[in-house]
Design a protein that fits this description.
heterotrimer, A mainly alpha, B alpha/beta, C alpha/beta, A: mainly alpha, ABC transporter involved in vitamin B12 uptake, BtuC, 84% helix, C: alpha/beta, Rossmann fold, four-stranded parallel β-sheet, two-stranded parallel sheet, 10 helices, 8 strands
Chain lengths: 290, 265, 309
């Protein structure tokens, strides 16, 4: 039992690094992902994750750090989306779709022109959690602190924005400004986390644990806490499974975390059915009197 | 610069380049209430949002609490129509009411006893204290509306802007709502409501009938008559005078009621 | 603001508290059950020769499964563990093992003994007029070709150098090395025989990617071009390259084109149809069923001879 559960980590530094990095990514994605889920940023979150590809490709071409390229790529996405939305009258969904596909195609074109690092495109998409070094972990830790502080500081306008953007504006917190800040927060999370699980999969880390948290929690901080717990556990289980069954580490982690969401959902639905069955055929009235 | 909390002169409201209602002029004094009456799409919500600064006026002038719309967040309370987003966020009833204090507290303000007291009193008035810890999404429509009204009350605003405030409320709830408005008016606040409920409108100081234009405007007794209401709603409504308010019912009325109006049987 | 700060920070701290606990779990490498050293060779072709030389004196493990593309293959967690725990890593060099490069380099940096085959051989450079000018940096004149195993005498140089390195690890197989070297010499003669049937004018090679360079140099063939003009299978194909290649094939009267691992088969078939040449598959990166280098090279040589004679 010990050998199966602990030995892969105690025997291998690269597995320990992967676990630490993965847990930090979970914390980061739980915090940012909570607002992605609550604010309905799923589509643009996904778009950001894919849209950084040309940025990363460009950075690698120039010999610059991939994260820098990702940051530039995400900035272009955000500015582009808001430009199209504001100037064309098209819906933001359309704008997001256009930018996302365009950036992704540009990224592939860039990589296809210089085929000396084609393997890197796989690494960009799927991450290299088994290749995490101390420097990556440091960056992740800093990001966790910064983003947690940002959320703690801006909790009131973020809550208002998720609850009702009009209320945010009327209360003196510009919904536009805080929406933009949220997007930057999501972009920063993607930029810092993609090295672990890849741009294709980081989106899963953003929304699956937070969605499970939304099902389980009655308050937002509890949602974040659940998301952290579920995310971190998925990292551990995913790494363990990928070790024992020789599967891709990043993909296994994300798959586990999505499964966790479905487990929670099914358990809840089943629990409610059982409770309803126990209560008898008459449907219970809502809490208190109208 | 006038002292009136709300003053508009030949104001046109609408979206982008499409006007919805043109030529609105009105003045609302402290302690006064104004009802906007009309169907969906008549321009009520558009006017409310313009007053709040959520959309810009298309023409004319509008002054809210002595300044441009949207520049006095600490002194305004808004109750909008419900959005589905509210049901996604895991939040308890008491946290919804606490959000009413955010405008006053801003980003960095610490919650003080006064804030807690206002929240507590508001919830007590709307009779939702026992629901404080319940998730918002598990409450019934009427209960949720009471919570939103408690939030409005907790703001201690000088101008209340309410869109369909009695939606989903039962008789007791409407009573609590009426008291809430009376208390606000009594301390010098002004109230603007958009409503379908003509009976409620009849209790306000001013009424404005809208149907993508101003049908009529003035005191309720002058404005709320059958022909005006026909133009507003497109259906025939008759008034029944009660001791303290009017009720309006659809269609023809049997003889014996004094409504001072010719009609054929 | 404060309560949420508390809670978020608290949750983060709890999550992070796991970190030092896990990190402090010391590393204990698994010891070999039988006390023998472990030599990890990256790819199967070189691995077969190392196994022949070493015999039972040590455990020889091949990292990249036979049949997988060594340019692209990526390691699993267990593979990384295997590499880190090896007593000696034998790798090709010249970035052949593209998908596992970082891990190999990290292992070397962390102190695992590493033998790089290309350090001990004459490295072939891409020559003038070789293949078609495509602007690909790997194809640039002077680029280093990693496919050393296509020439038995180049491999001989590597195996000879390996002997002392093995000895440093306490694996004394001087006899084994000698036997392998002798085998490579006689294999070279056999291959020359097989290829004698191909006249000078037909000694033209068009392959899936530029993998036959050492073979061509040793046995006097001319490299016309490749379907995927690169030294690695990871590159893609452009329309312009293909049309240039078709024209060249027709102009030079090439009799057959050879596909290999990673070659897009539809592209090869399309060229075959358009130019009328034979399309033959070469197992240039994969050992045959009996797992020996000799069979590997002879089978490939025979295919070439049959197609071009």
């Amino acid at each position: 039992m010990y050998n199966w559960l602990i030995a892969p980590f105690s025997n291998n530094e690269f597995m320990r690094n992967a676990l630490v990095a993965g847990i930090l990514v979970s914390v980061l994605c739980a915090v940012a992902g909570t607002f992605v889920v609550l604010r309905g940023l799923a589509f643009i979150g996904d778009a950001l994750a894919h849209g950084v590809l040309p940025g990363v490709a460009g950075a690698l071409l120039l010999g610059a750090p991939g994260m820098l390229g990702a940051a530039v790529g995400s900035a272009v996405m955000i500015v582009g989306v808001s430009f199209v939305t504001n100037r064309s009258g098209l819906s933001s969904d359309t704008a997001i779709g256009l930018l996302f596909v365009g950036m992704l195609a540009l990224g592939v074109i860039m990589v296809s022109r210089t085929d000396s690092f084609n393997g890197d495109i796989v690494r960009i998409l799927f991450g290299e959690i088994l290749g995490i070094r101390a420097a990556n972990i440091l960056v992740l830790a800093i990001a966790v602190v910064v983003i947690s502080a940002c959320v703690a500081l801006l909790y009131r306008p973020f809550l208002l924005l998720c609850f009702d953007p009009e209320q945010a504006d009327v209360s003196g917190f510009s919904s536009r400004r805080y929406h933009a800040i949220m997007l930057v927060m999501v972009a920063a999370t993607v930029v810092v986390s993609f090295q672990a699980v890849g741009t294709l999969l980081v989106f899963g880390m953003l929304i699956a644990p937070a969605s499970a948290g939304a099902l389980l929690a009655r308050r937002i901080w509890a949602m974040i806490a659940w998301a952290i717990g579920i995310g971190a556990t998925s990292v551990y289980v995913g790494l363990l499974l990928s070790y024992h069954y020789d599967t891709s580490a990043g993909a296994t982690v994300v798959f586990v975390t999505v499964c966790a969401f479905f487990v929670v959902l099914v358990a809840q639905v089943a629990g409610r059915s059982v409770a309803r069955g126990l209560r008898g055929p008459v449907s219970a009235s809502p809490v208190g009197a109208t | 610069m006038s002292a009136a909390p709300l003053s508009a002169t030949t104001l046109t409201v609408g979206y982008g380049t499409d006007p919805v209602v043109e030529g609105i002029s009105l003045t609302l004094q402290p302690g006064e209430s104004l009802a906007l009456v009309g169907t969906n799409g008549s321009g009520k919500s558009t006017l409310l949002k313009t007053i709040l600064g959520l959309i810009p006026p298309l023409a004319g002038s509008l002054e809210v609490l002595g300044g441009k719309p949207g520049t006095r967040p600490k002194r305004i309370a808004y109750l909008g129509q419900a959005h589905t987003a509210r049901f996604v966020v895991p939040i308890r009833a008491i946290e919804v009411v606490r959000m009413g204090r955010f405008a006053a507290l801003g980003l960095f303000g610490r919650t003080a006893d006064r804030d807690r007291q206002l929240v507590h009193d508001a919830m007590a008035h709307m009779e939702v204290t026992h629901l404080a810890d319940e998730p918002l999404r598990s409450l019934s429509g009427g209960q949720q509306q009471r919570v939103y009204l408690a939030q409005v009350m907790a703001r201690e605003a000088d101008l209340l802007v309410l869109d369909e405030p009695t939606g989903g409320l039962d008789v007791a709830g409407r009573e609590r709502y009426r008291e809430l408005v009376e208390m606000a008016l009594a301390r010098g606040a002004s109230v603007v409501t958009a409503t379908h409920d003509i009976g409620e409108a009849s209790g306000c100081n001013q009424v404005m009938l809208l149907n993508r234009r101003i049908i009529a405007q003035g005191a309720p007794e002058d404005v709320l008559n059958t022909s005006m209401l026909l133009q507003t709603f497109g259906i025939t409504l008759q008034g029944i005078q009660h001791d303290d308010h009017h009720d309006f019912v659809i269609g023809e009325m049997p003889h014996g009621h004094d409504h001072g109006h010719d009609h054929s049987h | 603001m404060l309560p949420i700060l508390n809670r978020v920070v608290r949750s983060a701290i709890v999550a992070l508290a796991v970190v030092p606990v896990v990190a402090s779990c010391g590393g204990t490498t698994a010891d070999n059950a039988d006390g023998k050293k472990t030599v990890v060779v990256t790819y199967s072709i070189l691995g077969s020769l190392v196994r022949e030389a070493v015999g039972d004196a040590a455990n020889v493990v091949v990292l990249i499964p036979n049949g997988s593309d060594p340019h692209e293959w990526e390691p699993s967690a267990k593979d990384i563990e295997r590499l880190n725990n090896a007593d000696l890593i034998v790798r090709n060099g010249l970035d052949l093992e593209g998908g596992v490069l970082d891990v190999l380099n990290n292992a070397q940096d962390d102190g695992v003994a590493t033998f790089v085959a290309s350090d001990h051989v004459t490295i072939r450079l891409v020559g003038e007029g070789e293949g078609l000018p495509t602007g690909d940096p790997d194809q640039e004149v002077g680029a280093q070709d990693p496919h050393l195993w296509m020439d038995p005498l180049t491999l001989k140089d590597a195996m000879v150098a390996l002997g002392p390195t093995l000895a440093e690890q306490g694996i004394d197989v001087a006899d084994g090395i000698t036997a392998v070297v002798a085998g490579l010499d006689s294999l070279d003669a056999e291959v020359k025989d097989v290829l004698a049937a191909v006249p000078e004018s037909n000694r033209k090679l068009v392959t899936g990617h530029e993998s036959m360079g050492y073979f061509a140099k040793r046995y006097g063939f001319q490299l016309i071009g490749a379907l995927v003009p690169s030294l690695t299978t990871q590159a893609g194909v452009s329309a312009q390259d293909l049309s240039t290649l078709s024209a060249e094939i027709a102009a030079q009267n090439v009799k057959a084109i050879f596909t290999e691992i990673g070659t897009p088969t539809q592209v090869a078939d399309a060229i075959g149809q358009e130019t009328g040449v034979k399309v033959v598959d070469l197992a240039s990166h994969t050992l045959p069923d009996d797992g020996t280098y000799a069979t590997f090279l002879l089978e490939n040589a025979t295919k070439v001879a049959t197609a071009l004679a």
